[in-house]
UniProtKB/TrEMBL annotation:
<feature type="transmembrane region" description="Helical">
    <location>
        <begin position="186"/>
        <end position="208"/>
    </location>
</feature>
<protein>
    <submittedName>
        <fullName>DUF1109 domain-containing protein</fullName>
    </submittedName>
</protein>
<keyword id="KW-0812">Transmembrane</keyword>
<dbReference type="InterPro" id="IPR009495">
    <property type="entry name" value="NrsF"/>
</dbReference>
<feature type="transmembrane region" description="Helical">
    <location>
        <begin position="59"/>
        <end position="81"/>
    </location>
</feature>
<keyword id="KW-0472">Membrane</keyword>
<dbReference type="Pfam" id="PF06532">
    <property type="entry name" value="NrsF"/>
</dbReference>
<keyword id="KW-1133">Transmembrane helix</keyword>
<feature type="transmembrane region" description="Helical">
    <location>
        <begin position="93"/>
        <end position="114"/>
    </location>
</feature>
<feature type="transmembrane region" description="Helical">
    <location>
        <begin position="160"/>
        <end position="180"/>
    </location>
</feature>
<feature type="transmembrane region" description="Helical">
    <location>
        <begin position="126"/>
        <end position="148"/>
    </location>
</feature>
<feature type="transmembrane region" description="Helical">
    <location>
        <begin position="26"/>
        <end position="47"/>
    </location>
</feature>
Amino acid sequence: MKTPDLVSMLATGTTRSDPDILGKRLGLALLIGLIGASTLLVATYGIRGDMPELLATPLFWIKVSFPLAILMSAQGVTARLARPGALLGLQRLILLALPVLAIWLASIGFLLLAPPSLRLALVLGSTWQVCSLNIALLSLPTFFSMFWAMRGLAPTRLMLTGASIGLVAGAQGVVVYTLYCTEMTMPFWGVWYVIGMLVPTAVGALLGPRLLRW
């Protein structure tokens, strides 16, 4: 093809792209992941029978707010990474770290105030063996849907983008898991919920360069 023909084709064949395609695509992926994770929760574990009473307790909403804050911050980071060359900014990273730091500081306070004989029980709870694995399992629908969404965008830092996608998936997995989990102590959340989120984050970092290459 001659250069003038190419220029003419590009000039006449352009179509206006949707300016909000990024938000729509990532939002749809998050919604699909939420539906998938909720369906998986109900089919595999069920929902706590005392959920109506639990909804009236402030501690439950603190429990939900912890992963929800991480989810919102990680989704913002992921959206930023979908734009080639866009800088993350220190503020986004601080917002991402704040919920974890807050839970850790509160957990340390609880452990210091608790009798030494009860401290290990506050950290382990009764489900520490399966908690993080359950979260990782529930993160799978969001993990796959977010990778699908990102493949239609233009990330350039593939390992970091994969890790961010994994963190979004892990955080949404925790949000859904709170509907089943019986653990109500912050030291438990600060250890096993965080590990549950880090598992898909690490997997996402490993798979990002392979699955997001374009």
